[in-house]
């Protein structure tokens, strides 16, 4: 009988040990269960943490609104065909500071504007310049570039610069194509005066 009891106790210890090892530590007295740590936030160019943006690298809201409205207005006056474009101003973390679009703007253009801004933040060049790189041209239109499906080669986004440093991105995307997007973007960029 003793042999059976000792065997049962040993078997119980062997089974319980892994279970106890997986049990999270008890929270301190008076507190609820411990929450698992949050995953680090994603930055604009991958899994890096978001950065604190110092005051001198922040884009004033009034300036961002004025630039976006100017670009939308310019797109609507294009000839021979007006463009209902999506316009975005994003900060260094890829957060959308301002997003405007003319009535009737198609849903894909919001995503194209976002991806253009993402490309500028990650590659530190205009989306047009990225699209002209020999290795990008060789990959062909629609290819997943550098293993990153968010990168895009369409013109229409450029860095917002202050004191020689990038502080954000201005991006335009509409149905009339990259050349027209560039015209609208350039009109809006004139409003960023530092």
Tell me what you see in this structure.
With 194 residues, the protein is of the alpha+beta class. The protein has a domain of 133 residues: Beta-Lactamase, CATH 3.30.450. It is 40% helix and 14% strand. It is built from six helices and four strands. The protein has a four-stranded antiparallel sheet, sandwiched between helices. The longest helix has 21 residues. The termini are far apart.
Features:
194 residues, alpha+beta, Beta-Lactamase, 4-stranded antiparallel β-sheet, 6 helices
Q: What's the name of the CATH homologous superfamily of the domain at 57-189? A: Haem-degrading domain
Strand content: 5-15%
Structural class designation: alpha+beta
Range of helix content: 25-40%
How is the biggest beta sheet arranged?
4 strands, antiparallel
Shape descriptor: globular
Radius of gyration equals 26 Å
Describe the protein's topology.
Layout: H1 2-22, H2 61-76, E1 86-91, E2 96-101, H3 107-123, H4 127-131, H5 134-139, E3 157-162, E4 165-173, H6 178-189
Antiparallel strand pairs: 1-2, 1-4, 3-4
Helix pairs in contact: 2-6
């Amino acid at each position: 009988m003793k042999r059976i009891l000792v065997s049962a106790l040993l078997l119980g210890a062997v089974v319980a040990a892994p279970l106890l090892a997986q049990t999270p530590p008890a929270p301190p007295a008076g507190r609820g269960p411990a929450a698992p740590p949050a995953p680090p936030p994603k930055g604009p160019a991958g899994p890096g943490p978001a950065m604190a943006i110092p005051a001198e690298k922040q884009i004033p809201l009034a300036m961002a609104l004025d630039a976006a409205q100017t670009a939308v207005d310019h797109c609507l006056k294009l000839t021979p065909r007006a463009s209902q474009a999506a316009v975005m101003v994003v900060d260094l973390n890829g957060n959308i500071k301002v997003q405007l679009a003319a009535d009737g703007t198609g849903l894909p253009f919001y995503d194209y504007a976002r991806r253009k801004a993402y490309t500028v933040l990650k590659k530190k060049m205009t989306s047009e310049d990225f699209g002209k790189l020999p290795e990008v041209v060789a990959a062909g239109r629609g290819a997943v570039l550098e293993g990153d499906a968010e990168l895009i080669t369409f013109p229409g986004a450029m860095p917002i610069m202050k004191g020689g440093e990038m502080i954000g991105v201005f991006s335009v995307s509409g149905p009339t194509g990259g050349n027209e997007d560039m015209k609208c973007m350039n009109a809006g960029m004139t409003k960023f005066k530092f």
